Each structure stands twice: as structure tokens, then as C-alpha cells.
Amino acid sequence: MDLDKTDIAILRCLQEDCRSSLRTIAAKIGVSVPTVSSRLATLEQLGIVNGYCASLNPERLNETSVTLTVKTRLQATEEVAKVLAKHEWARRIRMTRSGLIIIDATVVDRGDIDSILEDVAASPDVLDCQHFDGLRTVKETPLARVTDALTTTLICFQCKGPIKGEPIKLRMDERDHYLCCHSCEKLYLEKYKKLKAEA
Ligand SMILES: [Zn+2]
Q1: CA 40 to ligand 1 centroid distance, Å
Q2: Which class does domain 1-54 fall in?
């Protein structure tokens, strides 16, 4: 699905300053506050907006950023990545098709790096592990690029799975709700009505 100009403008405002109020955003892009609010609810539900958090600078906190590359046995990449994800020091983990895991790690004490490497290398599924000390961050920007042409794969609001083909689109409370099939639609409507009755 293509995101329209309003969605894109909202994302841009928030990426610049996630503390912007709905009112500020509405005024800036020339739509009503309820429009911003309902659009944002949908963007959140689609997993496009993941959260709102301050961007803290680890260097100013005397923390050390390290990049680790972990080569795994091909069949075990996902399993190893899941185990690594449990560690506090692993801040961002990506898997590549070739069985490589790339980890952006942050250590509070530089001395921790050795024990982390030992720990990672101890897994029988890990073939190799390297680390690269970050010297200084030269550029740091949010990963998503808000261009003028953004598209997304719709996910079902009920089962959270990707919607293949035409979605079932319900218009309720001036918002669009997307469902993948009629059984999800039924469950979602039941849940939605119950939540509304409780509110
Ligand atoms: Zn579904």
C-alpha cells in the first residue's frame, strides 16, 4: 500500500521531533488534530511507527559501541540470533542470507568485550566471531528514510500477519482497519466492540 502525503508528513514531523504534539503536527501540515490522531493510530498498528524514544548519546555516557560479526552454521543463524538477542549489550542485531549476524553492541565497561566474545564463540553453531571497536560516531540518523514515495506491506490488525492480496478494509470511528480474512474480521470486530463498550 502507498502511504499518502498526510501519512508521510506526519512521519517526517515525528522523526524530526517525537515530542511534537498532535496539535503542533496538525498545524504544521494543515490537517485537523483528529486526523493526525487517527492516522497515527493506524501507522502504529501497521508497525511503521514502532515507538517514541529519546535518542541518547552513548559516547556522552562513556559507553563503548562495538560492532560484532558472527559467522554461524547456515541452518543455525536464526537460533543463534535469538540467543544473542537476550543480552542487554546487544542493541541491534541483523541477519544476512549468508549466515552472518551483525550486532551493534554497547558495553559499559571496555573490559566486558573479551568475555562477550568468549561467550559468543562458545556456541557450537558459531564458526567465527570478530569485533570492531567504534572510535567515534561520525553520523547517526534514524534508519528509516522518509521519502516522498513510501509504501508498506499491510499487516492484519487481528493476526498481525502480512496481508497478501486485497485486504478487508473496515471504516470505523473515522479510521481504516485492515484484516486478512473473514475469520480475522469477525474476531477483530468482536474485540473492537468489546473494547468500545468498556471505554
Ligand atoms: Zn489476519
Answers
A1: 21
A2: mainly alpha
Q: How far is the CA of 176 from the centre of ligand 1 (A)?
A: 15
CA of 171 from ligand 1 middle (Å) equals 17
Sign, CA torsion 146/103/84/80: positive
Whether residue 88 has pLDDT greater than 90:
yes
Please check whether the domain covering 58-133 is classified as CATH 3.40.50.200: no
**Ligand 1: centre distance to CA 180 (Å):** 4
DSSP for 111-139 reads THHHHHHHHHHTSTTEEEEEEEE------
Say what the pTM is.
Answer: 0.84
Domain boundaries, the chain: 1-54, 58-133, 153-199
